[in-house]
Design goal:
Radius of gyration: 39 Å
Number of helices: 32
Largest sheet: 8 strands, mixed, barrel
CATH class of the largest domain: Alpha Beta
Distance between the termini: 73 Å
Number of domains: 5
Strand order of the largest sheet: 22-23-25-26-27-28-29-30
CATH superfamily of the largest domain: EAL domain
Helix content: 40-55%
Number of strands: 30
Strand content: 15-25%
CATH architecture of the largest domain: Alpha-Beta Barrel
CATH topology of the largest domain: TIM Barrel
Shape: elongated
Structural class: alpha+beta
Length: 911
């Protein structure tokens, strides 16, 4: 824990890694045993007739025995005495020539080792127990104590405070190192300004000399749009992060969690938490605490930077105004007459003339809140407790306004030390105090909205929780608000409109709560509300409803009418929320639940949400391990030409063989993979495997025309700068013809980022691959957009095909899509074909291709090779195979290797 002290820092560091032994008093086992040997030998010599020198030696052993008396239990004493006496007696009778000296050696060898080992074992157990008891202080207390120190130290102590904060965090979380890289604006360099490392490791010279930001463009771009970035191993970094990989490898860093440091809304540096010796998973609780630490460091470093700028400004001003004198005063303590200089008077707006008056002229002008402090400072100096009088206070000027002044003086004393008079000066420091107050305000408030920031919000929340602990009836609640679709507004209308939107949202939030409540902006489009002293959860839900209603009203920003909504998570104080981080985490979890349930709503936290959040966290961890362990597999489903019945190709479908949960379908894990970015390395691996398999079939079976392979691309893959290069590499490494590869992109992904999609399509077309628009009809693309992208094929979503007879509207949609494709000169693939009636209807509509359970379930590559080896090339051959699963397609079992039928393919025919 860190405890602030007057005039500096006082830091007490928690224990080291592992169960390290706690400090204990130095053992005195050796002198104790030596003393016992000497006493026992002397006693034996005295009572058994041994030599006189050994009897005297026993007396000398008594001090050594007393020195080490605490190191063995009293239970051991009779045993030691008995053993040593027996050895002494035996030596006296049977070995007189060897004498009693042998007794000492034998006793030391037989007894000393085992007793020492037993003692050290007891000490080790006691020390570990003591360490575990002392190391139960929570991370919340650590952060709170660091915040107290950072807010209480002077700007000149900021660097020391940051270094010690890094040391405490590193020790508490058992990290190998922490470092702060800050951007130096003049050279656009990243320089390691603060660090702590476990052991003798030192940062590379390039870290100290500075690394150009342009050398790590990928990392800098990622950090600019996230609240934290972590990698458990360097192997999961994408190909475009090669420079970053080299940067971390030169620093021997295997795993890291990076938190951006922001000056306002711009990125100014990085707080890094590093692991050198092992790969490491970084939990959300770690990231939340690290983000709080980053806010504290930014606040402190900003104070230091501003203080230096202020000092430089003051020095310039002092040089320019060196001839301007301060106000002078001279106080005769015996007569209570004070002479005030003309400058003293003019500084307060009075007539510029010297004046003789009493001390009342001065003290009556002092602000009531400062008067006691002025009198105390005077009393301390006049009584000799301080070497000089110095006090900052407010003085009332002639207009009735108060200005900050610095009064300083020194007493003139008699020979016996009595104060006779005090002479001093008055300096106008009003401008400086205004700057300091503004800096203190800015350190705890958001630059854009003026609302409290995370540091101030956490501080108020901790106080509120403290009141709740003292009085269980005084509840508090945290509302975590995240604006829906804010990025779209910011990207389409510009950051200025986005900033105005954030300011207006802050105003509406303040209008929706009481004056005693706190509204804060955490950063980006995230806001929090602290409701203090409420009766129950219904008070919090009523406020959430008011906020949602206020946000739904239109906003007029520079002539742009904007509608916005928000998702709110609510967490109530209770026995499971001992510290602020607990309540913040719970509200954050509830907010994400609200977003997943449709946005523009609120959700109240419950323990089931935490369980779901932990499950998602475990799923993310399992995904990372699955990549390392190659647990993903591919299944293939045939695509059939309806008119000829010929198999034209296959679609590669991802399956995950989970060690505990068995085989999982994409719907069970793709959303998490997309959110965490793991979909990118997974997608590239799927692409490479599918190309290799298709090329192998082409070489082995020499089909004419060759079979095609269809692979899905995710939205994150589409936005990767090396997309075209990844596809080119997969084709070159496998030897597959570009025309045999069909890349499928959903309509929604294209519409989410038209510019990225258009750039990717242009590059892919130049490679010669075919492009399919997947799940067509489920998005909102216009005909102009559809035409401008020049896709080769439209894939009709399975939901329309499955219900084309049950719902006439679905049948009409299928008819429309096929007709549209014919007009635009594009091919059509119908997904989800399960019955012959559907297939016949699609053929009547002149739909070219079909795919679905009517032909086959997805199967593994070996089954396809077996089918092709049997000479089966068309749907007729597949349909002639025995039906292996007579169940509804809605109960399609997860594919898990070869089909359970006796033949490679398992057609499912329900009619």
């Amino acid at each position: 824990m860190v405890v602030p002290a007057r005039g500096g820092l006082s830091v007490s560091v928690a224990g080291r890694k592992g169960p390290a032994l706690a400090p204990a008093k130095t053992p005195h086992t050796k002198p104790f045993l030596a003393g016992y040997l000497m006493v026992a030998s002397g006693a034996a010599a005295l009572f058994l007739g041994g030599p006189l020198p050994f009897a005297l030696l026993g007396l000398l052993g008594i001090p050594l025995l007393l020195i080490g008396r605490d190191n063995l239990s009293w239970f051991d004493l009779p045993l030691v005495a008995l053993l040593l006496a027996a050895m002494a007696w035996a030596a006296g009778r049977n070995m007189p020539d060897l004498g009693w000296g042998v007794t000492l050696l034998l006793g030391l060898m037989i007894v000393g080792g085992s007793l020492t080992e037993a003692y050290l074992r007891r000490e080790r157990i006691r020390s570990i127990a003591q360490h575990e008891t002392e190391d139960r202080s929570g991370a919340g207390d650590l952060i709170a104590s660091i915040a107290a120190v950072m807010n209480g130290i002077t700007p000149s102590e900021i660097d020391l405070g940051v270094e010690r904060a890094l040391q405490q965090i590193g020790i508490h979380f058992q990290l190998d190192g922490l470092f702060v890289l800050q951007e130096i604006p003049e050279g656009k360099l990243l320089t390691c300004t603060h660090s702590w490392w476990d052991g003798d490791w030192k940062p590379p010279i390039e870290w100290q000399e500075g690394v150009e930001c342009e050398q790590m463009p990928w990392l800098w771009k990622e950090l600019a749009h996230c609240t934290s970035f972590s990698f458990g191993t360097l192997d999961i970094l994408p190909a475009e992060a090669q420079a970053e990989r080299s940067f971390f490898e030169r620093g021997s860093i295997r795993s890291a969690c990076l938190v951006p440091l922001r000056h306002g809304d711009s990125l100014s540096g990085v707080l890094g938490h590093a692991s050198f010796h092992e790969d490491r998973d970084w939990s959300e609780s770690h990231k939340t605490l690290f983000r709080t630490l980053a806010d504290l460091l930014v606040s402190g470093l900003e104070r230091k930077r501003t203080a230096l700028a202020l000092l430089e400004s003051e020095e310039r001003y002092s040089r320019l105004s060196g001839g301007v004198s301060e106000g002078i005063w001279d106080w005769d303590l015996k007569t209570d007459v004070v002479v005030y200089s003309a400058r003293w008077r003019s500084m307060l707006g009075d007539q510029a003339r010297e004046l003789r008056a009493g001390s009342k002229e001065w003290l009556d002008r002092v602000h009531l809140q400062d008067l006691a402090g002025v009198k105390l400072a005077l009393s301390n100096h006049l009584s000799g407790r301080t070497p000089a009088f110095e006090c900052e206070h407010r003085l009332r000027d002639s207009g009735g306004a108060y200005r900050w002044m610095l009064s300083r003086g020194t007493a003139i004393r008699s020979l016996d030390g009595r104060p006779l008079r005090i002479t001093g000066s008055l300096t106008d420091i009003n401008d400086r105090r205004i700057v300091e107050e503004r800096l203190n305000h800015d350190a705890l408030h958001d630059d854009l909205t003026g609302l409290p920031n995370r540091v101030l919000f956490i501080d108020r929340l901790e106080h509120s929780l403290g009141r709740h602990r003292r009085n269980k009836d005084r509840l508090c609640a945290v509302l975590f608000l995240d604006l829906d679709r804010f990025k779209i507004v910011n990207d389409s209308l510009g950051p200025n409109v986005g900033d105005q939107l954030l300011i207006e949202v802050g105003n509406r939030l303040e209008d929706s709560v009481r004056q005693v409540d706190t509204v804060a902006r955490l950063g980006g489009d995230e806001f929090t509300v602290l409701l203090d002293d409420i009766k129950d959860i219904s008070d919090a839900t009523r406020v959430a409803e008011r906020i949602l209603n206020a946000l739904q009203k239109p906003l007029d920003l520079n002539g742009q009418v904007i509608f916005t909504t928000g998702s709110i998570g609510i967490a109530l104080s209770g026995k499971d929320t001992a510290v602020a981080d607990d309540l913040m985490r719970n509200a954050d979890i509830a907010m994400y639940r609200a977003k997943s349930q449709g946005k523009a709503r609120y959700e109240v936290f419950d323990t089931a949400m935490r369980a779901r959040a932990m499950a998602l966290l475990k799923l993310e961890t399992d995904l990372r391990r699955a990549i390392e362990r190659s647990e993903f597999m591919l299944a293939y489903q045939p695509i059939v030409a309806i008119e000829s019945g010929r198999i034209t190709g296959f679609e590669a479908l991802l399956r995950w063989t989970h060690p505990q949960r068995g085989r999982l379908l994409p719907k069970d894990f793709l959303a998490t993979a997309e959110e965490t970015g793991l979909i990118v390395p997974i997608g590239w691996e799927v692409l490479a495997r599918a190309c290799r398999q298709a090329a192998a079939w082409e070489r082995k079976f020499r089909l004419d025309p060759p079979l095609t392979i269809s692979v899905n691309l995710s939205g994150k893959q589409l936005r990767q700068g090396d997309l075209v290069e990844q596809v080119r590499r997969a084709l070159e490494d496998s030897g597959l013809s570009p025309h045999s590869l069909k890349l499928e992109i959903t309509e929604g992904i294209i519409m989410a980022d038209l510019d990225a999609a258009r750039s990717a399509f242009d590059g892919l077309r130049k490679l010669g691959v075919q492009l399919h628009l997947d799940d067509f009809g489920t998005g909102y693309s216009s005909l102009s957009v559809l035409h401008s992208f020049q896709v080769d094929t439209l894939k009709i979503d399975r939901s329309f095909v499955r219900n084309m007879f049950e719902d006439p509207r679905n049948g009409g949609i299928v008819d429309t899509i096929v007709g549209l494709a014919q007009v635009l000169g594009k091919e059509v693939v119908a997904e989800g074909v399960e019955t012959r009636e559907q297939l016949v209807r699609l053929g009547d509509l002149r739909c070219q291709y079909a795919q679905g359970y009517y032909f086959s379930l997805p199967v593994d590559a070996a089954s396809i090779s077996g089918m092709l080896g049997m000479g089966i090339r068309d749907a007729a051959g597949m349909l002639a195979l025995p039906t292996g699963i007579e169940t509804s397609p809605a109960r399609d079992p997860n594919w898990g290797g070869p089909s359970p039928a006796s033949s490679p393919f398992v057609p499912v025919r329900t009619k």
